[in-house]
Amino acid sequence: MTFKTSYLASALLLLAARASAQTANAEAAFATLQEWYDPVTGLWNTAGWWNGANAMTVIAELAAVDASIVQDAISIFETTFSVAPSVNPSNGVEKSVGTNGLIQTTYPAGWPNNTISKRAIQDSTDPTVWLDGANDDAEWWGLAWVAAYDVTGNETYLNLAEGIFNEIAAGWGTNCGNGGIYWETTNHYVNAIASELFISLAAHLANRVPANAATYTAWAEEAWNWFASTGMINANGTINDGLTTDCVNNGQPVWSYNQGVILGGLTELNKISPNESYIESANSIAQAAIAALADSNYVIHDYACEPSDCEPNGTQFKGIFMRNLLLLQRASPNDLYSKVIEACAASIWANDRDTTTGELGVNWAGPFVGGDATTQSSAMGALVAAISVE
Ligand SMILES: *[C@@H]1O[C@H](CO)[C@@H](O)[C@H](O)[C@H]1NC(C)=O
Ligand SMILES: *[C@@H]1O[C@H](CO)[C@@H](O)[C@H](O)[C@H]1NC(C)=O
Ligand SMILES: *[C@@H]1O[C@H](CO)[C@@H](O)[C@H](O)[C@H]1NC(C)=O
Ligand SMILES: *[C@@H]1O[C@H](CO)[C@@H](O)[C@H](O)[C@H]1NC(C)=O
Ligand SMILES: CC(=O)N[C@H]1CO[C@H](CO)[C@@H](O)[C@@H]1O
Predict the structure, then answer these.
(1) Does residue 236 have its Cβ closer than 6 Å to ligand 3?
(2) Which of 224, 277, 281 to mutate to test the pocket of ligand 4 (most atoms within 8 A of CB)?
(3) Which residues of 281-305 are buried (b: 16+ CB within 10 A; e: fewer)?
(4) Has residue 15 been placed in a domain?
């Protein structure tokens, strides 16, 4: 008994020590990320509009497991909430898919600059001031405000996320099988990311807004049933970028973020409306994604762009996969998932970090080749996820 107790106690101490080392690494990554934060724009220099939503989300995730940064996180949420709409790139955003299959976003010349913004005067509680014409961008902000709500319990953020969702839902598509969320309001490319984010945002809201849970659940179910029938999930069980104008899989790259967002969506949907098929589908996609994107050391890559072609926006993707793999790991634990998360975090720290500046780069296996707020917040996603699996 004594032996067992002390054995248990030392095992717990060991676990706590590991978790605190992971927490310290994540806190260091956070401190470096904030060197790019501009309180005048509420965004992170070197990163775009949609990337800002992801940087805010990873900070909220750290705050959810690390009480010591909660006050900092609250202050970032408040600043970003009040000023970011003033630099919404608005109608300046024009997206296209580049030759390497990567999203190209064009911001107005001089952006971010609130004197040239079309949204200079704004009420941050108005969901339309978060819309920029790119549906996925608004959905990232919707999820970011859900994450801020989870940390603060502040209903202002949850109401904003609902408002953003309702704006996007009004554009439910008709091009392919009467469904889906178009990439942009003016570009009706039916792609994976905008539709996956819609499923995930609906399912997150369903779990947090009891009064409208049935409506959000119904949206998430309709959107998932549509998504699963489109052919975006290929014969390998991974997800390509989108559909052709003839509504068949366009064979564009299997980006890590497209394998990730759906995992969080299905996990949240299963929470509000349990159905084993949701978790089975999520496990199938996660395992296919790991088979396709992990190297022999279990480190995730976006092979389609690494190491040198991920700029400007592919640098953000892998952290999104980590965040959502962790949600699946919590709902349906699997040693493979924790091994991948731990391997990514350990490799970033050992092989993909500038030990002088604290910057983290795009190739998680290393070598470090330079960082910005997108590579930093993405890699930080792996460090934060690792806190919870050890
Ligand atoms: C909720 O968030 C808003 C916007 O940041 C802020 O003005 C308000 O003070 C917050 N409410 C509480 C109770 O903290
Ligand atoms: C913002 O844009 C205005 C108008 O183009 C310009 O005059 C001003 O110098 C810019 N400010 C910054 C900080 O770039
Ligand atoms: C499935 O994976 C194999 C091996 O990576 C690849 O050659 C093939 O193109 C993939 N098929 C599809 C439909 O993506
Ligand atoms: C579970 O989900 C699957 C796929 O969406 C659906 O076909 C099935 O009817 C659902 N089962 C229940 C009991 O709702
Ligand atoms: C974060 C980031 O690199 N965003 C970029 C997305 O792409 C456009 C250009 O295509 C850049 O202007 C953004 O900086």
Answers:
(1) yes
(2) 277
(3) bbbebbebbbebbbeeebbbbbebb
(4) no
Other C-beta atoms lying within 10 Å of the C-beta of residue 103: 22
What is the domain count for the chain?
1
Residue 223 structural domain: 21-388
Determine the length of the chain.
390
- The Cα 206–Cα 171 span in angstroms is 19
- Alpha carbons 244 and 283: distance in angstroms, whole number: 27
Distance CA(148)–CA(367), nearest Å, equals 33
Please tell me the residue having the least CA distance from ligand 4 atom 13.
Answer: 275
- 8: exposed, middle or buried (Cβ count in 10 Å: 0-12, 13-18, 19+): exposed
Q: Is 367 among the domain residues?
A: yes
Q: Is the bond preceding 307 in cis, omega lying within 30 degrees of 0?
A: yes
Residue 37 carries which DSSP code? Answer: E
**Sequential pLDDT tens for the chain (390 residues):** 445 556 667 776 766 776 699 999 999 999 999 999 999 999 999 999 999 999 999 999 999 999 999 999 999 999 999 999 888 887 556 666 666 666 666 777 777 765 555 555 578 999 988 998 899 999 999 999 999 999 999 999 999 999 999 999 999 998 999 899 999 888 899 999 999 999 999 999 999 999 999 999 999 999 999 999 999 999 999 999 999 999 999 999 999 999 999 999 999 999 999 999 999 999 999 999 999 999 999 999 999 999 899 987 899 999 999 999 999 999 999 999 999 999 999 999 999 999 999 999 999 999 999 999 999 999 999 999 999 997
Q: What distance in angstroms lies between residue 371's CA and the mean position of ligand 4's atoms?
A: 44
The enclosing domain of 274 has a CATH number of: 1.50.10.20
Burial of 238 (0-12, 13-18, 19+ CB in 10 A): buried
The 10 Å Cβ neighbour count of residue 19 is: 17
Q: Whose CA is nearest to atom 10 of ligand 2?
A: 113
**Residue 250 in domain:** yes
Please check whether residue 7 lies inside any domain of the structure: no
54 alpha carbon to ligand 3 midpoint, in Å? 29
- pTM exceeds 0.85 for this model: yes
- Closest-lying ligand to the alpha carbon of 158? 1
